[in-house]
Amino acid sequence: MNQEVLKEGRLMKKGSVSWKSRHFILSSTKLAYFNRIGETMPRGEIALDSTTTLNHVSKRPNSFQIITGTVSLTVCASSADEEKDWREAIENAVRQIEGDYALPESQFDREWQIVSATGQDFEMPTNYEMIKAIGHGAYGVVISAVDTSRDERVAIKKIPDVFEDLVDGNVYFLMIMAYQSI
């Protein structure tokens, strides 16, 4: 990486199926991860900008989610202190992007949970409580839930790797637009 390294070390990264140990390097504009120390090509990365948020993941201790735009990355530290160090380093990098842009505290402290249904993990805010799995198929899993903040029943669909394929991504987008008009 050509940029100054702000922090580096091992974190567990949540993949679509399981958690894997990765070597992470935080610079002023991105968080990149590698299989091993010394590799030059990252296995993946998430850009940081003024919209980047950090969310606590309540189901797994010492874990949190980094979200920028439509991209998210869920990681887990080995201890509460290590989680705090990583969160502070990322928050500081985000603040520096906009020249000490003051981010609201809520941007870094929204509570999240992970619930499982038919082999899929759903990452969602804690104001949603899962009732039951409704169905599953080739395009994902649907659960029934209650939004406790509005006392409203909702259906939540999880489509793994939703934008891996452009054609499928277009189909999903059209599905979402159709559901909104109902």
In short:
The chain has 182 residues and is α+β, with helices and mostly antiparallel strands. It folds into two domains: 102 residues, Roll (PH-domain like); 69 residues, Phosphorylase Kinase, domain 1. It is built from two helices and twelve strands.
Explain the overall architecture:
A hairpin with a 4-residue loop joins strand 1 and strand 2 (about 20-25). The protein is globular. The chain contains 2 helices and 12 strands, in the order βββββββαβββββα. The chain has helices spanning about 80-95, 165-180; strands at about 5-15, 20-25, 30-35, 45, 55, 65-70, 70-75, 110-115, 120-125, 130-135, 140-145, 150-160. The model has no long low-confidence stretch (mean pLDDT about 85). It is of the alpha+beta class and about 180 residues long. The strands form 2 sheets. A 9-stranded mixed beta sheet has the order 4-3-2-1-7-6-5-8-9. It has a 3-stranded antiparallel beta sheet with strand order 10-11-12, with no helix packed on it. The N and C termini lie far apart (about 50 Å).
Indicate the topology.
Elements (H helix, E strand, L loop, with lengths): L6 E8 L4 E8 L3 E5 L9 E4 L5 E5 L5 E6 L2 E6 L3 H18 L12 E8 L2 E6 L2 E10 L2 E8 L4 E7 L7 H15 L2
Percent strand equals 35-45%
In whole angstroms, the N-to-C terminal distance is 48 Å
Main β-sheet, in a few words? 9 strands, mixed
CATH superfamily of the largest domain: Pleckstrin-homology domain (PH domain)/Phosphotyrosine-binding domain (PTB)
The helix-and-strand class reads alpha+beta
Widest sheet, order of strands: 4-3-2-1-7-6-5-8-9
